[in-house]
Amino acid sequence: MANFNPGQFFNEVKAEARKVVWPTRQETVTTAIFVALMMVMLAVFFLGVDSLFGEIVRWLLTLA
């Protein structure tokens, strides 16, 4: 196992943190809106699928 040097570790962490490219405010807002729209669309889709399967099960139970 290699020797652990905390000072070197923190220097490397700082060096890597300087390489991070943060998104602009516009990119963040655009991404948030896209995520919200996709979330609503998927919620409506799964509501429809769940309702359809619920009706099928209810219909099958009336046959018994």
Describe it for me?
With 64 residues, the protein is an all-alpha fold. It has a domain at 22-63. It is built from two helices and no strands. It has helices at 6-18, 25-63. The longest helix is centred in the last third of the chain and has 39 residues, at 25-63. It is elongated. The model has no long low-confidence stretch (mean pLDDT 94).
Separation of termini? 67 Å
Number of helices: 2
Weakly predicted, low-confidence segments: none
Order of helix and strand elements from N to C terminus: HH
Mind telling me the C-alpha Rg? Answer: 26 Å
Q: Label the structural class.
A: mainly alpha
Mean pLDDT: 94
Summarize the biggest pleated sheet: none
Strands, count = 0
So what's the overall shape?
A: elongated
Helix content: over 70%
Organism: Novosphingobium bradum
Transmembrane segments: 29-49
Subcellular location: Cell membrane; Membrane
Protein name: Protein translocase subunit SecE
Characterize this entry briefly.
With 64 residues, the protein is an all-alpha fold. It contains two helices and no strands.
Question: Which descriptors would you attach to this protein?
Answer:
64 residues, mainly alpha, 0% strand, elongated, cell membrane, translocation, protein transport, membrane
Write the layout of secondary structure elements.
Blueprint: H1 6-18, H2 25-63
Transmembrane segments: 29-49
Subcellular location: Cell membrane; Membrane
Membrane topology: Single-pass membrane protein
